[in-house]
Amino acid sequence: MFLETYLKVRKVFKPPKFSFFIGKWKNEPNLPVWRRGRIIRFYESPHERNDFWQGTRLLYSKWTDFGKRSHPILSKFVKPTYVLPIWLSFYIFNYDIWFKTKWEADDYRYEFPASFTIVFFGLAISITADEDCLYWESILTYLHYKGDIKKTCDRMGIWTKCSSGERYFGFKYEFLKDKQLKERLKQYQYEVLHNSKGV
Fold it and tell me: Domain coordinates of the chain in residue numbers?
């Protein structure tokens, strides 16, 4: 569901920025990656048909011998699979953020934004929670550590900008709206930076 992850931390984290889209669905930037009309299937088992796809385009659909035996009358009049044209598309997509864990259970990797999209006649209206990966990964890590600011900060790490050599924390205090937590995080980050070697 749209913003399900954020709603768990809405009292602590600032809301994400939003972007809006109105236009052709094929130009809309969110998931799903495919863009096509509904699929109409006349088969019951995948073994009954032989479909050949090129991306999201169905190039041909034929009945297999098994399919012809299973549907002796139907197979003479229709193909096993049809794809309606994109202008006949009617969908609602309601996604929270997509992420995965890598290497360890608390090592989160943000992949796709939370979005809500309505598609009709091949057109789309959508709203997207547009924030960078550090914002979402900080939220996921914060939830993983049950609101422990220090553990979240440690796990998100310290980064260095290649261009300037400037160091910054992955868990930015600017993400927080709770003033007390923001001050605690600022103080902790100050201590970490000034206690680390070479600073």
Answer: 4-29+91-195, 39-83
